[in-house]
């Protein structure tokens, strides 16, 4: 007789925040997790194996773009055939291995995990192919309201559960809120690439002279450093364990991305009581800024709109930072865990 699991969870790589989430789900359900490989654009702890508290399999001990997709697919199929599963959660509708498996598994078992909030084309061949792929899922786990809207626009009519997250961030002991009255310090944490819209960010801070710290590395680092004025501090790559102290030294977290599926760094900053200034294309915008009123959003294409958002968050900082401190992370995390461990099993 085959070993039976409540959940088979398929994801592309063992990001620390996914491992944290799966560890919590494993306390409530018998799960087996499959990771395709590694991805250099996602934070993966070197000792991640030591933190895993559930059975899992790495299909490839290499970067995702170096794998043999056909070999990877057959390795996945071997696992699917070796065990029985009540439900299968697919981490997106992009990886070929997952798409192929969804057509070889009963639709009632298949659940889509949707973390993409950037679908804009609602016509053309790619759109209709995605609609066909979506027809293979009986439910969807949408990270936020923005993701649910995308699914509905693409014609998904099945049950959608909003999870309010993409995983669980590491959370040290949260400090008691203390109102800050000293000079406002702004912080950006992330990759230094075109998608993050740092050219506009730097242009605005070059003009307003406010203190901005940039933590991260990437292909545009040298170029953007060269055009930055003295009020902008560059930290380069910062290890995840060292970010806590950096967040706590700043008042406002700013994320100007042209597109962001969720923005785990937003959660990390909010947890440290930072007020937020976010592009209106951030996947977590509703859940982490608009609903709890923790900051101001702006159009990432418009520098004047960004400056107005900065002015507004400075003017009303005491309100936004207090709302950030009052944000209930325990309730949010419990909601996310329940979505995976309870809600998807309801008829």
UniProtKB/TrEMBL annotation:
Keywords: Transferase. CDD domains: GT4_PimA-like (cd03801). It comes from the Bacteria. GO terms for molecular function: glycosyltransferase activity. SUPFAM superfamilies: UDP-Glycosyltransferase/glycogen phosphorylase. Gene3D superfamilies: Glycogen Phosphorylase B. The keyword RNA-binding does not apply. Residues 177-316 form the Glycosyl transferase family domain. This is Glycosyltransferase family 4 protein. It comes from Kaistella flava (ex Peng et al. 2021).
């Amino acid at each position: 007789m085959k070993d039976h699991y409540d959940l088979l969870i398929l994801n592309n790589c063992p990001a620390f925040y996914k491992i944290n989430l799966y560890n919590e789900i494993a306390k409530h359900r018998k799960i087996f997790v499959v990771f395709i490989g590694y991805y250099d654009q996602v934070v993966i702890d070197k000792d991640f194996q030591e933190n895993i508290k559930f059975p899992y399999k790495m299909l490839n001990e290499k970067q995702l773009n170096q794998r043999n997709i056909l070999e990877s697919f057959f390795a996945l199929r071997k696992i699917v055939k070796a065990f029985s599963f009540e439900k299968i959660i697919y981490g997106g509708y992009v990886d070929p291995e997952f798409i192929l498996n969804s057509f070889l598994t009963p639709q009632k078992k298949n659940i889509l995990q949707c973390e993409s909030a950037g679908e804009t084309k609602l016509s053309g061949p790619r759109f209709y192919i995605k609609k066909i792929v979506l027809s293979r899922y009986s439910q969807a786990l949408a990270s936020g309201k923005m993701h649910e809207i995308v699914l509905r626009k693409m014609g998904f009519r099945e049950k959608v559960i909003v999870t309010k997250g993409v995983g669980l961030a590491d959370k040290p002991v949260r400090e008691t809120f203390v109102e800050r009255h000293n000079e406002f310090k702004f912080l950006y944490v992330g990759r230094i690439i075109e998608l993050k819209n740092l050219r506009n960010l730097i242009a605005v801070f070059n003009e307003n002279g406010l203190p901005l710290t940039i933590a991260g590395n990437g292909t545009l680092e040298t170029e953007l450093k060269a055009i930055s004025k003295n009020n902008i501090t560059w930290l380069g790559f910062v290890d995840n364990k060292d970010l806590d102290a950096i967040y706590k030294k700043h008042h406002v977290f700013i994320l100007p991305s042209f597109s962001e599926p969720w923005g785990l760094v937003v959660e990390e900053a909010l947890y440290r009581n930072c007020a937020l200034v976010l592009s209106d294309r951030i996947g977590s915008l509703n859940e982490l800024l608009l609903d709890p009123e923790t900051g101001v959003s702006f159009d990432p294409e418009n520098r004047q709109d960004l400056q107005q958002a900065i002015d507004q968050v400075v003017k009303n900082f005491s309100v936004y930072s207090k709302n950030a401190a009052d944000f209930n992370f325990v309730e949010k995390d419990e909601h996310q865990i329940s979505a995976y461990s309870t809600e998807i099993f309801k008829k």
